[in-house]
Amino acid sequence: MPATPDPEPTATIKPVTGFNLSVAFETIARAVPQRECLVWKTRRFTYSTMAERARRLASYFHDRGLGVRTERDRLAGHESGQDHVALALYNANEYLEGMLGSYRARVAPFNVNYRYVGEELAYLLRDARPRAVVYHESLAPTLAPVLADLPFVDVLLHVRDGSGHDPIPGAVEYEEALASGDPEGPDVEPSPDDLYILYTGGTTGMPKGVLWRQHDIFVAAMGGRRVGTWELVESYEDLAARASAGSGLKLGLLPPLMHGAAQWAAFMMMAEGATIVLPDDPRRLDPPDVWRTVAREGVNTFTIVGDAMLRPLVEELGRAEYDVSSLFAVGNGGAPLTPAVRELALARMPSLIISDSAGSSETGAQMHAVSSNPGAAGRFVPGPGTVVVTEELDAVLAPGHDGMGWLAQTGAVPLGYLGDAGKTARTFPLIDGVRYSIPGDRARHLDTGEIELLGRDSVTINSGGEKIFAEEVERAIARHPAVADVVVAGRPSPRWGQEVVAVVQLAQGATASADEIVAHAADHIARYKLPKAVVFVPVVERSPSGKADYRWAAQRAAGP
Q1: What is the number of alpha carbons within 13 Å of residue 463 lying toward its C-beta?
Q2: What is the pLDDT of residues 416-434, one digit of tens each?
Q3: Are 78 and 211 in contact (CB under 8 A)?
Q4: CA angle 253, 472, 493 (to 5 degrees)
Q5: Longest Cα separation, the chain
Q6: In 10 A of CB 482, how many CB atoms?
Q7: Spatial contact of 394 and 406, defined as CB atoms under 8 Å apart
Q8: Tens of pLDDT along 209-268?
Q9: What predicted TM-score, i.e. pTM, was given to this entire model?
Q10: Are 546 and 302 in contact (CB under 8 A)?
Q11: For the chain, which domains are there?
């Protein structure tokens, strides 16, 4: 992105009143206390039970001295005045309890990628400086050597998962901690200004902690408005009424809660008084397990992240019979669905509604589309405050403008990046006195009113002066029937500066040459965008949520 002048790093963002995530959940729990909030194998938690467990955890944190150090109105956007809690957990009830309990104690939890090891993990924890870590016991061997060098961590909670690892020295059993906590919660009043922290995935660079006011993320992505209709929740009373009127919707949560898309989906559904259902094995995508869970629990909808999740699910429906009569909708976000996979899903489930959402850690949910039209891939109806701005970041572009610009969001946007005043200023600039979030996606605002999402600038390939968007090339290659998965990256070229390379995983039992794949892609994109090489791999590496790992792809594209 082009640089913009940095504002004074001490400038503060004026807070406004609004919602707190903990208070919002307590409001829902009082409205529908006996409705099931979360189901996982034999564990069934009502809203009332989940709320009490979160309050007990909050009491434990508070009794250990965790809380607020400096109130929001005395801080700059890149600063935190709260103690932090690292959630090194797989999907389980403890993840949601860890979030809700932290919010109730006015402590800021953040997500830890459970794939991180060594230096990656050390970087994240040094950057976030948590006072507490809640971890699944199977992660203890990875965490222990890193935590030994982090003296600021003084609270450890050990969540049993059957792996048999001993607690890290000084850790307390999670259930013991809850049993010792006051079920009424600590004597503190959560604020709309309290932080929601989401670390970015780091698939193109080092992860950064995005700081949101809880009111702003509630409105942007966690239940304060309905994606698509964009209908706002006006008050806590309105939230209680909405939850009470809910029809008992059941959401199958497949992506890991360590990613924002899953957190947002969970909180959006809880705002409707819905039930969250986890597959028996929440640590990996096991299609038979997912479909058995759908049939057993009567799941109505589930969330996915692109082809990497939906393709194996619908392929399983071609191998065995499952009762999927309860399922009527699938929500996709975080990675695009290719037309071929979308068409396969609709062939297996003709009445299925597939909805696509677009957004980022720095914007919340921005755009929405419900379409089975392959030609509409990458086009969305923007929500409130979603616009396209000029290359120079000095004006908002009207629909039908020539060329492309930056996808931007105004309204409820983050405060900044933890500890990074410069990046905060560059990503959240002022245009005509209005503050925008511009994390780096290229887009066009079409004369139809739709926004065409072109791709993240950080993975754009500049070949011979032409900008080539990796996602566009990926969509073209993924149309080939022999391609199971593909990620596109650039590599240095003495002639072009950079050249396009496709890293391809073939479908099981399928064969195709590099020339065949390139020729097939030529039917869908201009010749200058075609790969100069195709690298075949047994498996395309992706994050646990299904997002492309472009750093890995660039390494494979560059060769041994």
Answers
A1: 21
A2: 999 999 999 999 999 999 9
A3: yes
A4: 120
A5: 68
A6: 15
A7: no
A8: 999 999 999 999 999 998 878 999 999 999 999 999 987 899 999 999 999 989 999 999
A9: 0.86
A10: no
A11: 46-226 (3.40.50.980), 385-458 (2.30.38.10), 464-558 (3.30.300.30)
